[in-house]
Amino acid sequence: MTARILEGKVFAQAFREDAQKKAAALQEKYGVQPGLAVIIVGSNPASQVYVRNKHKSCEALGIYSEVIEMPETTTKDELIAKIDALNADAKIHGILVQLPLPEQIAAHESEILERIRPEKDVDGFHPVNVGRLVTGEPGLVPCTPFGCLRMLELAGIPIDGQRAVIIGRSNIVGKPMLHLLLGKNATVTICHSHTKDLPAITREADILVAAVGRPKFVTADMVKPGATVIDVGINRIAPKKLVGDVDFESVKEVAGAITPVPGGVGLLTVAMLMENVVRAAEMQLQA
Ligand SMILES: Nc1nc2c(c(=O)[nH]1)N[C@@H](CN(C=O)c1ccc(C(=O)N[C@@H](CCC(=O)O)C(=O)O)cc1)CN2
Question: Which of 126, 216, 259, 280 could form a disulfide with 264 if both were Cys (CB 3.0 to 4.6 A apart)?
Fold first, then answer.
């Protein structure tokens, strides 16, 4: 039997509607429109598309949006000065620096991201928000793993007591996903490049999350029959050809549910950003 396909657009639409209602409720209660500022440095074509989508999504949902375009040659100090100004700007509740950064400032990424006030860190990358996720306190959570969790819940896929395996230990996906699933009482294992006999571990997973950044890395023999497979990979293998970290065609014959690429969890990233902007505004207005 072939797997249930978890279409990103269906879940993203539900999350957007939710964020729109919450934005309207904040406007009604406080007379304030939630506001997002996105900083993009340089001219990475994919980043430009993602930033445009974030701006359009804000406009559609009643969220104020500013896009700050800075040249490729921007220095760390210039970028930090911009962040400081947005930190102090009352109409901006969420700040995001689009990644990747150009080479000359990429080495300072942590210092740059840590300059964003934790209350405005709608990417959930600041160490304060990372700590809150680890300890289970309310905070802002990275958009892609947050979207994966909310999708599993909305799809009615059980998490409590299930065995979850994550391939990839990045700060943006793997590690936050670990804490989100743990918070829902899954038994979670993280695998990475040093893991021995990876297929033996992935075959134990009721929920398998692939965030490894290698095209079609997960094959059917690595998947337990009936498992839910979430593909977080976005690998461009030709100018117009995107594939995930999962070999979709073979794995869909074994899995119980699977996300496609494109059209899967990538679409949840921007939707969950809208949710984070509204949550950030709510937290700041309640304080
Ligand atoms: N500051 C951040 N930078 C980056 C993040 C992030 O969450 N915060 N994530 C990615 C880029 N990204 C959003 O910023 C993003 C990636 C992918 C998608 C998406 O809709 N993917 C589609 C395919 C789109 C395509 O054709 O390229 C899909 O998977 O179906 C949205 C947003 C890195 N940078």
Answer: 259
Burial class from Cβ neighbours inside 10 Å (0-12, 13-18, 19+) for residue 141 reads buried
* Rounded Cα distance, 141 and 107, in Å: 23
User: Does residue 80 sit in the same domain as residue 154?
Assistant: no
Whole-angstrom distance, CA of residue 131 vs CA of residue 111? 17
- Domain span at residue 224 reads 143-267
Kindly state if the Cβ of 121 falls inside 6 Å of ligand 1.
Answer: no
Quote ipTM for the complex.
0.96
**What pLDDT does residue 239 have?**
87
Residue 242: per-residue pLDDT = 94
How many angstroms separate the alpha carbon of residue 265 from the centre of ligand 1? 9
Q: Which residue is closest in CA terms to ligand 1's atom 34?
A: 99
State which amino acid sits at residue 170: S
Q: Tell me, yes or no, whether 164 and 249 share the same domain.
A: yes
- The pTM of this model reads 0.96
Just list the catalytic residues. 54, 98, 123
Instruction: Using the mean position of ligand 1's atoms as its centre, give its distance from the Cα of residue 226 in Å.
Output: 28
247 and 184 part of one domain: yes
> Is 263 near ligand 1, meaning CB less than 6 Å away?
yes
Q: What is the mean pLDDT of each run of 10 residues along the chain (287 residues)?
A: 95 98 97 98 95 98 98 97 98 98 96 98 98 97 98 98 98 97 98 97 98 97 98 93 97 98 97 98 94
